[in-house]
Amino acid sequence: MIVDTLTSPVILFFVLGLFAAFVRSDLAIPEAFAKAMSIYLMAAIGLKGGIEVAESGFTVDLASAAVIGLLLSLLLPFLAFALLTRIGGLNRIDAGAVAAHYGSVSVVTFVTAKEILTGQGLSPAGYMVAVLALMETPAIISGLWLARRGQTSSDGGGLMHEVFANASVILLVGAFVIGMVAGKDGFEPVKPLFDTGFRGVLCLFLLDMGLIAARRLIQSKKLNARLVVLAIVLPLINGSIGVLAGTLIGMDVASAATLGILAASASYIAVPAAMRMALPEADPGIYLSMSLGITFPFNIIIGITLFTQLAGLMG
Amino acid sequence: MIVDTLTSPVILFFVLGLFAAFVRSDLAIPEAFAKAMSIYLMAAIGLKGGIEVAESGFTVDLASAAVIGLLLSLLLPFLAFALLTRIGGLNRIDAGAVAAHYGSVSVVTFVTAKEILTGQGLSPAGYMVAVLALMETPAIISGLWLARRGQTSSDGGGLMHEVFANASVILLVGAFVIGMVAGKDGFEPVKPLFDTGFRGVLCLFLLDMGLIAARRLIQSKKLNARLVVLAIVLPLINGSIGVLAGTLIGMDVASAATLGILAASASYIAVPAAMRMALPEADPGIYLSMSLGITFPFNIIIGITLFTQLAGLMG
Amino acid sequence: MIVDTLTSPVILFFVLGLFAAFVRSDLAIPEAFAKAMSIYLMAAIGLKGGIEVAESGFTVDLASAAVIGLLLSLLLPFLAFALLTRIGGLNRIDAGAVAAHYGSVSVVTFVTAKEILTGQGLSPAGYMVAVLALMETPAIISGLWLARRGQTSSDGGGLMHEVFANASVILLVGAFVIGMVAGKDGFEPVKPLFDTGFRGVLCLFLLDMGLIAARRLIQSKKLNARLVVLAIVLPLINGSIGVLAGTLIGMDVASAATLGILAASASYIAVPAAMRMALPEADPGIYLSMSLGITFPFNIIIGITLFTQLAGLMG
Amino acid sequence: MIETVTRKRIEILVDTPLVPRLLKHARDVDISGWSLIHVDAGGGRDGAWQQDDVTGAAAKTIILMIANENKAQALTEAIAPFLNSYRLLLTIGDVEVVRGEKF
Amino acid sequence: MIETVTRKRIEILVDTPLVPRLLKHARDVDISGWSLIHVDAGGGRDGAWQQDDVTGAAAKTIILMIANENKAQALTEAIAPFLNSYRLLLTIGDVEVVRGEKF
Amino acid sequence: MIETVTRKRIEILVDTPLVPRLLKHARDVDISGWSLIHVDAGGGRDGAWQQDDVTGAAAKTIILMIANENKAQALTEAIAPFLNSYRLLLTIGDVEVVRGEKF
Lengths: 315, 315, 315, 103, 103, 103
Ligand SMILES: Nc1ncnc2c1ncn2[C@@H]1O[C@H](COP(=O)(O)O)[C@@H](O)[C@H]1O
Ligand SMILES: Nc1ncnc2c1ncn2[C@@H]1O[C@H](COP(=O)(O)O)[C@@H](O)[C@H]1O
Ligand SMILES: Nc1ncnc2c1ncn2[C@@H]1O[C@H](COP(=O)(O)O)[C@@H](O)[C@H]1O
Ligand code: NA
Ligand code: NA
Ligand code: NA
Hints:
The complex is a heterohexamer, with three copies of chain A (315 residues) and three copies of chain D (103 residues).
Chain A: H1 2-6, H2 9-22, H3 31-56, H4 60-86, H5 92-103, H6 107-119, H7 128-136, H8 138-148, H9 156-165, H10 167-187, H11 191-196, H12 198-219, H13 225-248, H14 253-264, H15 270-278, H16 284-314
Chain D: E1 4-15, H1 19-28, E2 34-44, E3 47-50, E4 60-67, H2 69-79, E5 89-98
Antiparallel strand pairs in D: 1-4, 1-5, 2-3, 2-4
The complex binds adenosine monophosphate (3 copies) and sodium ion (3 copies).
One sodium ion binds at residues 76, 102-105, 238, 263, 265-266 of chain C.
């Protein structure tokens, strides 16, 4: 099954990106275009999730998935923080910043997992997009609390604003709502762009993510063996917790696998920017190298397959 | 019917953009990508208009629509100028600059109107694209003449160049001619990009326009109550004149509505740049805030529906 | 037949770009978007070539085409160098730099030729994409050797790196390999983006190339009559040699024409950057003006048709 | 001849997410205007970086401000405590401006 | 040791549509070269702005020119009348250059 | 009052493909950091150019480096031989910095 994953064009383009960066090729995707693709991908998955929920309606499943997602995002940073300070040897500030990343999620990992699962006939529930949006920012609160424990932060309002008005939260939730309002019929005229073109764009975006991840790893001067190990152990633990939680609340295999992949994934969009702002003393070299340089490729190439199989065993 | 408009994904993305800017989200569309989308949209509508005219041939209808469009663009600034100086309290320079914007047209308002009308089974004539291109720049001449009356401008050649070689004029007219030369058969191979993807791109572009319009309004320090009122009254007057003129020369309902929407719309691409160049003393804070911050959203959300109904009543 | 070419939207958009630049319009395609389109085009032709080779398998034809392509790229610069020094009056450094451009190839010329040939029912073999990738960089070695003859270059490693890890080589070869691994079935889900949208994107890209080529010509201060003539004579000679070579090794008409067009084309992506790096004393005003300002438009408008007819006569 | 006066040209290289925080400091010391200059890439003790719109966190920006000596001094005092923890690069040079009362 | 001479570093922040007009003034006083630096955003008495390719009119650019003192002086005189109406920001600093005869 | 020291602000305008080569020279003279500033367009004796991502060869970049006088001097000596053939524009100005030991 990992072979299936590894021969899908989507993953192959990611590997091409990694390869190009490692051989020091000057291949580069213009940043404006990469950003545009990430906006497109978020709008597209938001829309599709909203349409699916418009079809199926608000259900108890949706509500329990939302609650479990929120809890995972809020609580996973505590476990990560303990490991990062004790095993990783990080100080409180850096550990809190890294922990926030691992409580939050990676949109691209989610999208890639959804594509691969769907390609294997395992479609996760439409509301998982809402869970994705819900899991993005609560971890920021936990991470900051861990980093600043005892010290009152003066900037509570700014933080709440960051949690709710963050660009990717607004875009995912906004597109989700538009999908619900427009429904299947309203979606029809915009389908060619948002549905048909989706996988191709994902290929090009993962090519760029491969370049970015590998360059981050090459240029990093902040990683040591312990942090590298933690950047693989944390997704393994978090992902297993996620799959277990999903199975326990009665999710289908595909959705439980997706919840595991969300838990395993680490943010590299919403959280780094928030941490740079709210915890400027934390070292961005550590959290970006771990989440983007190691955990992201690990999840794309191995994690997605692994948690899908785990969900199959448990479900 | 306004409900139909407001539940179309195209409009909902515009509202999402407005919302994101008003809650001060950091959501932003890369400028290079937004510019690319506007080029795509202009190339696409130019091509489609050209193909339709290739089918229908040059007709008397086309010629009279062209003449009426030209006249509207040249004459509407005079009315606007009178209102802007007397009611708005602007000096001659600023009033001339603003008046030029209201004589000219907004490509995106046109495109959105065309989509919404077509979605309601009301297709405006193909040659309306040519009318759009014709209306873009003549208003610049009138606005400058009003601002500079009495003073001879030294830069007549530069002005004529701006009127004919302006980027959007060249692109619209160029694509229109390509559409006429290539015809329906020549268009077939490029249709997937220019036709099928069109509405989806329009969604993303209007998301950006929502952000830009709302940010312009928030950052503006130049608007007062009178100017805000004029930025709504001017499109109402100009749009009604446009619908009336279209109906009088015997246009069908959809085309008369479109002419009204063109007349009601205000430029925020070709004219601001031209005014900054030709009338640098005029305050860009005034003309951009009025045309982009108020008139544009007003037309998208209310004006299109309004003038369509007016055309239905008159026709 | 040249009329067929000249009424294809792809070519008409190129002509529109030339026209806009010559009338000094401010029309401009954002650079990030143009770069994105060139990446898309290379990924798309790489994928398609790989899929075709996956179907047809590695054949003797493929091997002989690869060898002849390599030889052309390595040897054509010698002929060009002789003409550039004797007739063009260039010094050794400038002549070597220009010669490298004419040994290498233009991806866009290839893509445009493929579209036009396919539109006439003449599909070149899928492995021609591999030939394209193979011809891109060897000419750099020949050009540098000609320019530096006698002087040992200190930077041999850097040069080899440039030849193999160049962005367009990595992308073309990478996408080619992905196409071979994924095959026709794996390509299916990404087909809408990479296949269906292809021609439309090519239109917009050629619009930009028209602008770039014409602006290069207008801004150039380095061209004289002899260099202009050579920028037309070199593609005529190289293209004829290419068609002849292709026909002699038994290629079908479409592939021989394509080989001719590759030989006739001059690089303006991989080679200029390499020359600026490896031969900074050479004048970029000369090589960019010749390859981009003259040879590129010549090939797009006349060369493609010419070498196709030549291949038909010989085949 | 046009009269010119000497003012300070302040350049601060800073991680893009921190820009709003620094502009707040600038407003606090009454600096009236600022411009953000686009930086593509860079390198230093902490390794190299490139502009990167996708994650955003790795991007840097130059804040350019023209101000009189007192304001420049006040700004330096205000942000000196963070120079290290925020990884800022602050330089101040002299320039001549026309109509110095603006700054 | 390489010999250097002092030249003027002129920086003009200007609305992008006005750039050609200012370059004309620069050519008129015989300034031989110029470079345009990308500005992303800014703020001042008139409120804030961001680079904006769609409408274009709100974009600003820095024109950077190296010139000798006489030419810098002549340029300042030439554009001083427009400083207010065009909303220009003009600063002039000293820099050392090699081969000063170029400027 | 915060103590500041004078350092050199080195600006090199260079064709983008040549940037790595110049950074090598900078490392050789022990300059610890650099930033690349985005240049959109320019003009000089050789005609005008615009940023151009497609061919790449026509793009230019400003390398900005803060360094002490000795390093600035050493860099100037190192790249002076190429100033003409590489078409470089090199300027050096004075700026005040806090914590000068970094440079
Ligand atoms: N003191 C300053 N330092 C740097 N840039 C400034 C300054 N004042 C104004 N600007 C720039 O000039 C633009 C117009 O300024 P103003 O005319 O004050 O609104 C601002 O948006 C800034 O980009
Ligand atoms: N001496 C310098 N001159 C110019 N830019 C510098 C210098 N030192 C550091 N920088 C910039 O500041 C960033 C952070 O520097 P550092 O904290 O030394 O890693 C670098 O990546 C450069 O962009
Ligand atoms: N005096 C100058 N001030 C600022 N930039 C310049 C100056 N002279 C040349 N340049 C820049 O350097 C490039 C090459 O100059 P040149 O070698 O004179 O053609 C120009 O295109 C400008 O971008
Ligand atoms: Na997670
Ligand atoms: Na109008
Ligand atoms: Na060739």
